[in-house]
Structure to design on (237 residues):
């Protein structure tokens, strides 16, 4: 693998796994939970993030200070963890640098209430508001690294198709009637629930606006390169 794009397996625990930039931090939590043989979801959450008192998803990365020190062995700063592995890396681009740093400081310290608590607003097509994935991305990762991971850009609400494969994104829930993000089984993309043995999937609606793909591509570039989302760009007619 390219050493410049792989971010480190460290000595924190044998459960640590490589994370490429853009991999949602929740993927590492799920893998670590399984690799350690833990039977207690709450204990795995506290071990990974510290005490936060919020949902397993942790969209914004509260507790990233602990993750940077323990999981990445301080090879990444807490701010880098937020920018590369959580939706903070996109939403913070619409704020001033000072505001982003203050926000990151709150998240680093593990504060996850008020404006630091992310509420995903779904639509009729995705009522369960779970994590989304691309089938083609999942297949590619299964063939190269042995397991699929959640991707940050797939969780940005207005992104309905995979920027890489142009495949419609999917979300799912099990017979337990919980979305993949809330399932006690700590699921990865496309997996069936270990409790009920089922995964019911839903597809996003394909956007029809001509300018949509341009908007999506600009958002992905902004996240990947950490560019302000308000930077002007020439309009191609």
């Amino acid at each position: 693998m390219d050493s410049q794009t792989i971010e480190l397996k460290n000595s924190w625990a044998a459960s640590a796994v490589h994370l490429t930039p853009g991999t949602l931090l929740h993927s590492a939590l799920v893998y670590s939970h399984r690799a350690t043989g833990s039977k207690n979801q709450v204990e795995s959450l506290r071990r990974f993030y510290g005490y936060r008192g919020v949902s397993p998803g942790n969209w914004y990365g509260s507790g990233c200070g602990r993750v940077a020190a323990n999981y990445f062995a301080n090879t990444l700063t807490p701010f880098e963890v937020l920018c590369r592995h959580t939706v903070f890396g996109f939403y913070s681009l619409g704020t001033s640098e000072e505001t982003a740093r203050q926000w990151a400081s709150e998240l680093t310290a593990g504060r996850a209430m008020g404006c630091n608590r992310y509420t995903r607003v779904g639509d009729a097509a995705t009522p369960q508001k779970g994590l989304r994935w691309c089938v083609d991305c999942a297949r590619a990762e299964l063939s190269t690294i042995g397991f699929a991971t959640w991707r940050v850009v797939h969780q940005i609400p207005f992104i309905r198709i995979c920027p890489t494969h142009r495949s419609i994104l999917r979300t799912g829930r099990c017979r337990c009637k919980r979305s993949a993000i809330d399932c006690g089984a700590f699921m990865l993309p496309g997996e069936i629930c270990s409790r009920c043995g089922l995964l019911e999937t839903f597809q996003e609606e394909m956007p029809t606006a001509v300018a949509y793909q341009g908007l999506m591509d600009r958002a992905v570039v902004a996240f990947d390169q950490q560019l302000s989302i308000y930077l002007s760009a020439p309009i191609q007619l």
